[in-house]
Amino acid sequence: MSAETDMIKLYSTRILALASEIPHTTRLPDPDGTARKRSPLCGSTVTVDLKVADGRIAAFGQDVKACALGQAAASVVGQSVIGLDRGTIQRGHDELLAMLKDGGPVPAAPFDGLAVLEPAKDYKNRHASIMLAFDATLAALDDAQVTA
What we know:
By secondary structure, this protein is α+β, with helices and mostly antiparallel strands.
């Protein structure tokens, strides 16, 4: 396959649809935790605000300035995080990282929608952007002092 064909495959219709449908794009006015993460390679950023109740995410807002791959990941994460605890989010993070870096399986539900990003495993320069939504969410939980 040519490099151009590979890039077309990477930016599939589903990835572009997810990128255009990012949920929870309004920042929260009084969050329990906030974090901004940036990919040094491409400059993509994701900022997450969240409210926590009983150790679970009760409200979530995100500001995503990333490539389509980072936006697609933020879309899947944003669709899933409300109601989840830190352990479930950490598991999703670790499974996505293993899928990208080690050819591991697709993350388990509720993050199985990240399967669409499996072709990105061959583009190491995109991995940091793809991980930003999880990284910012976990850091916001740290800021809110939510432990596992």
